[in-house]
Amino acid sequence: MRLRVIYCHSHTPSIRCGSFLLPYFQASKREILADYALPVAVISMSFLGSFVFRDVATDQFRYSDNHPLTRAPVEELPWTASIAALGMGFALSLLFFMDQNISAAMVNNPCNKLKKGPAYHLDLFVVGVVNGFLSLYGLPWMHGVLPHSPLHVRSLVDVEERVEQGHVYEM
């Protein structure tokens, strides 16, 4: 219930800002609001939720200091589990590779006019090394597509709005 209330209170203002308030702001204020709307909504609704729902009883996360971070005992697995883990690991690695390259292809569109730096493809290598380390300790994998995501590029780009025949185009 708490998450639904927080979601509704963070989602509704973003819809209202998009349809009601944005035409009345200057272009620079609209761009700032568009760039920082999600983090501001999440942080403000988290604070609001923690203060408004302070009296709601929730279970706390339990942890123990008795279990240090140790390597997963993969050598004790039966050979069938090793084969299954290899298959699932290969499928997940393929998914990461495809997601990374599809996002990079969308971002490298010629209309973005980007120049690749010297370490452009280094992020996929770093994700592979980090995920290999995380696998040894039984921790969940992470994925680093953010530097190539279209939203990341959109937030870094300077946009000029042009009106042609009653339609607003962004250049």
TrEMBL record:
A GO term from the CC aspect: basolateral plasma membrane
One Pfam assignment: HCO3_cotransp
An example Gene Ontology biological process: monoatomic ion homeostasis
TM region positions: 36-57, 77-98, 119-139
Compartments it resides in: Membrane
Membrane topology: Multi-pass membrane protein
Domain Bicarbonate transporter-like transmembrane: 23-168
Sorted UniProt keywords: Membrane, Transmembrane, Transmembrane helix
InterPro entries: HCO3_transpt-like_TM_dom, HCO3_transpt_euk
Source domain of life: Eukaryota
An annotated Gene Ontology molecular function: solute:inorganic anion antiporter activity
Main location: membrane
Protein name: Sodium bicarbonate transporter-like protein 11
